[in-house]
Design a protein that fits this description.
iron, Cytochrome Bc1 Complex, Chain D, domain 2, 11 helices, single chain, two-stranded antiparallel sheet, 7 strands, oxidoreductase, mainly alpha
């Protein structure tokens, strides 16, 4: 016989299980290892809110599909995201390349892995849930976020459980995690079983990543006050509203690709209000590689434009898959003049009007206005919210 009080189970001592004397019972805490490891950073009796966060009514995109966010699943995902045990030498976690202080991006051009550095710059993980594009990585090789989450773990250079080049394989990682006390408790807590599988790891990590959202920007304050993005935002300066109009409005080109009127057409690939990437986008004209060898025209994905920089304008790391763009001015300038590089057979059709690389002929006022608008897309909560922070004590 046993009683249940809160989350502590009272288990009878074997030799006196038939006795009604309460002194023969000992308290077994099902979360002892969680408490011992994380202290007050994780409290199974009072979880952070991941499942029911406020989402503005004007946000309509959602790629959650069948993996709905739960507080238990995202809590497990948070631990997995920050745990260096997921790397072969216990030095690298997902958060090593996706840092909360940088909108879950990296300030290094190439991120450090267990056996070298990444081949492309680490993409920021902001509002990944709110996008029509369901594929992941710059070259879209992962069919969805769930698949993506364990691919870096199984990469020889990144986290080292590749099963090649002398690495252990993913099953070895599962064995490793299965022998860790807090994972026994966390998987039981989230799934009702201590059994660890790759699918469970993927589901939990994806729930945590999709929970990372940013909707407290100056843009969001303004958007909530109007019926649509085309209207002037009452909280914007004249310059910010001008930049918004330039961002949203398509350009008008002559027969040789020169802009004669209209805006910049940024929304053709990054539509408001989510500012995610259009799934049908081609290459954006950046075809270099980090190591400088050859060209790479397969990069057609991009993160949301939200939180490109912090509210003070400090970049959250370099931009593009090569990290070659380091300022908003350089980013706008890149799209101002698109050259048809030899070998780039995958250049987005929107960047080559009438077969010519677009020439936007931007003036300083337009550049400054678009930069001012892009800065309105940055919030503050994503950098400080504890539920997305490292649960492991320093």
């Amino acid at each position: 016989m046993y009683k249940k009080a809160s989350l502590l189970f009272l288990v009878a001592i074997a030799y006196s299980c038939s006795s009604d004397d309460s002194s023969n019972y000992v308290e077994i805490d099902p979360y002892a290892a969680i408490t011992a490891t994380f202290g007050g950073n994780i409290n199974p009796e009072s979880l952070y809110n991941y499942a029911n966060q406020t989402i503005p009514g004007y946000i309509t995109k959602d790629n959650t599909a069948a993996n709905s966010i739960t507080n238990k699943g995202a809590t497990l995902g948070r631990v997995l995201f920050y745990d260096k045990n997921l790397s072969s030498n216990n030095t690298i976690s997902c958060s090593s390349c996706h840092q909360q202080a940088n909108a879950f991006g990296d300030t290094n051009i190439a991120s450090t892995g267990v056996n070298g550095t990444t081949g492309r710059h680490s993409m920021r993980l902001i509002n990944t849930r709110f996008a029509n594009e369901t594929r992941f990585f710059w070259d879209e090789r992962a069919v969805n976020l769930e698949t993506q989450t364990t691919m870096p773990i199984k990469d020889h250079g990144e986290m080292g459980f590749s099963g090649t080049n002398g690495d252990q394989n993913f099953n070895d990682l599962i064995t490793k995690l299965s022998n860790i006390g807090y994972y026994k408790e966390l998987f039981m807590f989230a799934y009702g079983s201590e059994e660890i599988t790759e699918n469970k790891i993927q589901l939990a990590l994806a729930q945590f990543v999709r929970s990372i959202q940013s909707f407290d920007s100056k843009y969001d304050i303004g958007r909530a006050q109007v019926a649509n993005d085309g209207q002037p935002f009452p909280n914007f300066t004249t310059q910010e509203n001008q930049g918004k109009n330039l961002f949203l409005s398509p350009p008008v080109f002559d027969a040789t690709g020169n802009r004669t009127s209209g805006g910049l057409g940024c929304a053709g690939c990054h539509a408001a209000p989510e500012f995610d990437i259009n799934p049908l986008s081609g290459n954006n004209g950046i075809i270099g590689t980090i190591n400088g060898n050859g060209i790479d025209i397969t990069n057609t994905r991009a993160p949301s434009l939200r939180d490109l920089v912090k509210t003070d304008g400090t970049p959250n790391g370099p931009m593009m898959h090569t990290g070659v763009i380091t300022t908003l001015q350089a980013a706008v300038g890149h799209y101002g003049t698109i050259n048809l590089a030899p070998g780039n057979t995958n250049l987005d059709v929107k960047l080559r009007p009438n077969g010519f690389g677009q020439q936007l002929h931007l003036n300083a006022q337009e550049v400054n206005a678009v930069i001012a608008f892009l800065r309105t897309l940055s919030g503050t909560n994503v950098y400080t919210d504890v539920k997305w922070s490292n649960p492991f004590p320093n």
